[in-house]
Amino acid sequence: MYGFLKKREQGSLRPIRLKRAETTKRVYDIQLSQNKEISRAHRGGVTCLSLEGVEQRYLMSGGSDGYIHIYDLHTHSRGNYTKIKPVASVSRYNRHLYAVSSVAWFPFDTGMFISSSFDKTIRVWDTNSMTAACNFPLDSRVYCQAISPIASHCLVASAAAEPRIRLCDLKSGAFTHSLTGHTGEVYSCTWSPSKEHILYSGGNDGAVRVWDIRRASACLMSLDQDNGVDRDPLAETNSAHGNKGVNGLTLTSDGRYLVTLGMDEKIRLWDTTNGHNTFVNYGSYWRNRFKSHLQAVVSDADVWPPLLFVPSDDQQVLVYSLLDGRLTKRLKGAYGRVTSVERRSSYQELYSGSNEGEILVWEPTKKSSTVGTAVNNTTLGSTLTTSFVDDMANNTTMEGILDAWSDSDDDEHGSP
Q1: How far is residue 209 from each of residues 100, 200, 294, 365, measured CA to CA in Å?
Q2: Is the whole-model pTM more than 0.85?
Q3: Which residues of the chain are under the pLDDT cut of 70?
Q4: Cα 219 to chain centroid, rounded
Q5: Would you state the CATH architecture of domain 30-364?
Q6: Residue 153: how many CB atoms within 10 A of its CB?
């Protein structure tokens, strides 16, 4: 740390480099929080989590009991221990009839959020009154819904127990059109964070499809684990996970890489520029046996090497190095199957929900080591070593890599 501060004072180190090094150290050092707890509010399991991106203050959870709760993460107590209780909840008469499968905040305003459920509906909620402002009835149970974080349009994509993906227009309250191509149920969908009209979907046919919603023939390609997209991007034989379903999709913050989670218990990393499988081997530690949407997250651009946090059926969150597949840490503490994880990048915190109803808080240790010390990993995997930190401080090549990973235009000024 002293070396970083000295170089920063001399002007030989850009401010953003020190920020990135400290952020990386903290994220690599997270463990179960000893002084912060989120109270148990769901009568059943927690199925999904969503943190709003405006202030990164309000965490929302959906449960198998049909309820949705909102927590204020800025809650503080007088002592050293903080217990966070819901500040708003959907009432018994307004809740979903069956399990909530996914929740999402409106990207630009915390006054509205969206949920999907096995009761065959997608609902748009008014946060102030916690009542549904709009209801989209579908023909089958909904596994997932997604709204673009950058788009000028207000379309919500639905992944349901049917082969088509339906797009719901928040402006008109009606369905605009359907995307057809999957041959079975669709388990997951997500929008590109860099291209507002690009949508990704995964289904129980083992296919991961890329859509451009502006086109009449909307499907651009179907990803193939053997990179068959070079021969024919829409070949019927293309398959991302064999004949097993794909129930999780996660994109990096710049939209360059796509992570797919398959029910063959394989994790695959794809280059979105050409649709190629990068053939990163994540090992056989992960468990995924249930037909439900899984929510994984990737660390933000200030963390290098980037990390992938994946919920696992064996009561833990597995932390992988995104680009080489090494297992760096196991986050253990859940009493049941972990269903979802969500990150709070401004505080380097992680939240996980399980089917036992608890939401766990993971944060950097209070007595974390200095930048030049190896991270204390609880299990096998890589460590953040002194040599890596020296590269961060001295290697101009590493600076170029970090700048390429971040899409911030304000790096010169060191803005967060």
Answers
A1: 25, 6, 17, 40
A2: yes
A3: 1-2, 4, 8, 367-416
A4: 24
A5: 7 Propeller (2.130)
A6: 16
